[in-house]
């Protein structure tokens, strides 16, 4: 079976925009199991001849009690469990947040390879905001703009190097 890349991160950082940019064909949306609705969105993608599955998730909003947000969090945690590599998306305009740090903690515990994408670096004046994200403790921190498409090739190079 193909390697699985899960896209995780707090809401509104651009996960779905990245997913749509990287997605090839969409292969499955819903897969029911007893007690669990796996309503994550999957696609099949390919980079440099290497095929993989990509999963989009709702945002990981930590420490919430709300039922819908709990559900979103569960979906993201399931995706992390399933994944071979995690694409951890953050927002370079907003800068690092406490939620990013909580998500990072969860990802360190998973012991899966993690690539940090600092998204929304649309122009040079935002490039320096990249560096604070090294504090999250992961080796790969890559700036990108899912709106312009810049940096996506670098992100994909590192992702497939982790399979
Ligand atoms: P998600 O909640 O993490 O899935 O985020 P979305 O993909 O829904 O994007 C949230 C918002 O950020 C939308 O308004 C996007 O258009 C915007 N967005 C996504 N990527 C970029 C980017 O690279 N640059 C800028 N400026 N905005 C972006
Ligand atoms: Mg989304």
From TrEMBL:
<feature type="domain" description="EngA-type G">
    <location>
        <begin position="3"/>
        <end position="163"/>
    </location>
</feature>
<protein>
    <recommendedName>
        <fullName>GTPase Der</fullName>
    </recommendedName>
</protein>
<comment type="subunit">
    <text>Associates with the 50S ribosomal subunit.</text>
</comment>
<feature type="binding site">
    <location>
        <begin position="119"/>
        <end position="122"/>
    </location>
    <ligand>
        <name>GTP 1</name>
    </ligand>
</feature>
<comment type="similarity">
    <text>Belongs to the TRAFAC class TrmE-Era-EngA-EngB-Septin-like GTPase superfamily. EngA (Der) GTPase family.</text>
</comment>
<feature type="binding site">
    <location>
        <begin position="56"/>
        <end position="60"/>
    </location>
    <ligand>
        <name>GTP 1</name>
    </ligand>
</feature>
<feature type="binding site">
    <location>
        <begin position="9"/>
        <end position="16"/>
    </location>
    <ligand>
        <name>GTP 1</name>
    </ligand>
</feature>
<comment type="function">
    <text>GTPase that plays an essential role in the late steps of ribosome biogenesis.</text>
</comment>
